[in-house]
Every structure is written in C-alpha cells, then in structure tokens.
Amino acid sequence: MKYILIFLVIYSQLLKSTAICPDGFDSVENKCWKYVHKFMDQSGADAECLQYNGASLIKIQDDVENDHLQTYLISKNADDRVWLGMTCNESTVAASCNWSYDRGTADEYNKFGDNYPNVTKGPCVYILKYNKKWYSSDCESRRSVMCEVPQTSEGTGFCAYESNTDSIPDPCPYNYNHNCYFPSDVNASFADAVRFCSNMCADLVSIHSALENRYLITIPDIQARWWLGGVGPTLDIIVWSDFSPVTYNNLQFFDHGGCLYVDINFNTKIDGIWGTDYCYETARFFCKRPTGLKCPTNKS
Fold first, then answer.
1. In the beta sheet, which residues pair with residue 98?
2. Fewest Cβ atoms nearer than 10 Å: which of 106, 109, 148, 296?
3. Rounded to 5 degrees, what are φ and ψ at 170?
4. How far apart are CA 123 and CA 117, in angstroms?
5. Residues 280 and 223 in one domain
6. Does residue 273 lie in a domain region?
C-alpha cells in the first residue's frame, strides 16, 4: 500500500506539471524533435544525437506522426533524405526492421515505398521528405540527422536535507523523461550510496529502458565505475532497491551475485553494459527522483 500511495502522489504531480522539451528541441505533438543540418552516416548520426540530452535517431509510430515529420522537415528547410533510427534484416519483410534501442519493429507501423525494405541496397532506413516514404540504404551513405527525446517536465522541486526543517528550492541538473538525475562526486559503498540518495529524497538509480540507459552514460565527465540501484543474483534476475518493476536488463558481466554497476569509460563498445560486484566495494553513483517532487520536511 505504501508504494501505491507514493506512485499516486508522483503521478498526480506529473499530471499537474507542464510538458517541456530540453533546450534546442522543438515540441511537436507529444515529442521533442531536433533537426541537425549535418550529413553523416547512420552510426555517426546516432552519435550526433547522443550529444543532445541523450537523444536518439527518430522513430515514427503512425501516419499522423509521419505527416508531422514532413511538415517539420519542410519548416527546417531540411535535406530531402533524412535518417530514421531503423535497420532491416530481410527484403520486403517489415517485421525484420528494428527501431534502435528496443523501440519495436516496422511491423507495428511503416511507410515503406513499393518493394521496400530492400536490403540489397543496404540495411539502414531513411525517409524521403517530398513523399514521406521510407527507403533502404547502405549505412555509410551521408544523410541529414533527425533526433528525438521524450518530453519531460520542469525539474525544480522542494526538498528538505538532513536536519533542515523547511523545504528549500532544489535544482535538477540532469532532466530526462520526468526524472532528475544526480551524479555523485565521491565514491561510496552500495549501502552508503543508498543512504546518501535517501537524504536527497531520491533513490539510487533504477533504469527502465535502453534509452534511459543511453542517457545515463552521457552524464558523467569522468571515467569511473558507477553503482546502479539494484542487485543481480543471476544474469536473468535483477531487483531494484526502489521496488520499481523490471522492464529492462542490460546485465552482461556477471562474475558473482551482487550489486549492479555500470562502467563509463567513454568507450562506445562497452559503455552502458552492466556488471555485478561485491556491495562493500566503493564506486561513484547516481541518485534519481521524479521532477518537481516536493519532499516531506521530516525527510532525514
């Protein structure tokens, strides 16, 4: 019952908050879009998006959104060919086309031109601005960049720290999808990290999608090991310390059951992969809480 009440409080705050986009993004319906007038291969385009608040190449989910994209591209005087965040494995089989970062397949919705996808032309996919159709291409072709991030809400909340009796304004240094993230500047054991976050009216971070995981690795400006807010008794089982449901698992380095960490070394091949370590070891850590949360004044 306690966690149901917490969820209802957070949900009601989100309903009252106004959806916003990060700086540099345009709000289009319920999405945040950014056109980048650079010509890059698809991998480079995705890396370019990552620089902007952890954005990814765009996903289109229905005809309305596809129409909005054409209008948006025209308004930006965009190039005719713009990358989508999709790759395909088989010709003329939409179900073989995957949106990046576990965002589904083109079997749910697609706007391929006749006889596409056609992997003989390449596995990557772009949209042609003038007719709104999607086409296959080799991934090394240089096309323009269309990024998106989820909408979020104003980050400043009010919290009481330690022995303070009054709530004080509290900024949100890293704001993503209605959550504030706080990277530590010290090392701590897992238990001490949990206590530190609790004193901020926050939890040690839980991660619920590939996109959130991608965002997280953009935050630190140092190479380090970072605690995540969970334990992994096996590769297939994780438990978050904030009791949130497990909707995403990127645990790949499993030497022994223990507390979850992520190494961030600015190496795109391994950054974002999770491992386990003894909980008494020390590491940096991330705290996380909903945007705009007003914390109890007796929080200590």
1. 87, 105
2. 296
3. -135, 115
4. 8
5. yes
6. yes
**Residue 15, SS3?**
helix
| 291 Cβ contact list (under 8 Å, min separation 6) | 14, 17, 152, 153, 154, 155, 157, 172, 175, 178, 179, 180
How far does Cα 74 stand from its chain's mean position?
A: 27
Q: Kindly list the distances between the CA atom of residue 122 and the CA atoms of 42, 90, 126, in Å, as whole numbers in the listed order.
A: 11, 10, 11
DSSP 3-state assignment of 64? helix
Q: In 3D, which of 289, 27, 17 has the Cα closest to residue 176? A: 289
Q: How far is CA 207 from CA 57, 94, 138, 286, in A?
A: 20, 29, 33, 11
**What pLDDT is stored for residue 259 in this prediction?**
97
**Mapping DSSP to helix (H, G, I), strand (E, B) and coil, where does residue 211 land?**
helix
Burial class (CB within 10 angstroms; exposed 0-12, middle 13-18, buried 19+) of 55: buried
**Tokens standing for residue 286:** 């991330």
Q: What is the pTM of this model?
A: 0.87
Exposure of 286 in the CB half-sphere (CA atoms within 13 A): 31
Measure CA 154 to chain center.
17
Of 117, 150, 183, at which residue does a domain stop?
150
Q: Considering the domain boundaries, does residue 5 fall inside one?
A: no
Q: How far apart are CA 209 and CA 247, in angstroms?
A: 7
8, part of any domain: no
Q: What is the signed CA dihedral for 132, 215, 252, 185, rounded to 10 degrees? A: 170
pLDDT tens, position by position, 139-170: 999 999 999 999 999 865 555 444 444 555 56
Q: How many domains does the chain have?
A: 2
For residues 167 and 297, the answer to whether their CB atoms sit within 8 Å is yes
For 176-221, the pLDDT digits (tens) are 999 999 999 999 999 999 999 999 899 999 999 999 999 999 998 8
DSSP lists the bridge partners of residue 289 as 180
C-alpha span between 18 and 33 (Å, rounded)? 17
190 and 127 part of one domain: no
| Amino acid at site 6 | I
